[in-house]
Specification:
Number of helices: 4
Shape: flat
Order of helices and strands: HHHH
Number of strands: 0
Oligomer: single chain
């Protein structure tokens, strides 16, 4: 007879799965980024590194989706609101900075890594605020 997992066990399992896939993706990002500079000179390896990055990124996205589906309705709402805020900030700030950069009015070179950090920090802040607000 198969026993059913408790809600907490499912959450713990999906959180662990998401953490593992996120770590694998971060490592593949480092490999694809620094491999051509430090480990190899062959562009074929770079293509393979980027392919690995994309595949592990897709697995991380699916793990994140499954994780969110395993949350209760309130937790899903908190994540949805945090995602909405981070998406809005990314679009508005990203386009604003892009306009300034096109006109050579931005004091630094904006790249995707900068926006990734902004999106991540905005998401984490939104999630922290929502967690405090809904407790």
């Amino acid at each position: 007879m198969k026993t059913t997992e408790s809600f907490k066990e499912l959450q713990h399992k999906s959180t662990k799965r998401l953490a593992v896939w996120t770590m694998i993706w971060v490592l593949s990002t480092a490999l694809a980024t620094f491999g051509p500079e430090m480990l190899w000179e062959n562009s074929l390896y770079t293509y393979a590194g980027v392919a690995l990055f994309l595949i592990t990124g897709a697995a991380m996205i699916l793990a994140n989706r499954k994780h969110i589906l395993n949350l209760d309705e309130l937790q899903q709402r908190m994540h949805l609101e945090a995602m909405a805020i981070s998406l809005g900030v990314a679009v508005v700030l990203g386009l604003g900075l892009s306009i300034l950069e096109q006109q050579d009015l931005l004091g630094f070179k904006m790249d995707f890594a900068f926006m990734t950090i902004v999106i991540s920090l905005t998401y984490l802040a939104g999630l922290a605020i929502n967690t405090r607000r809904y407790k």
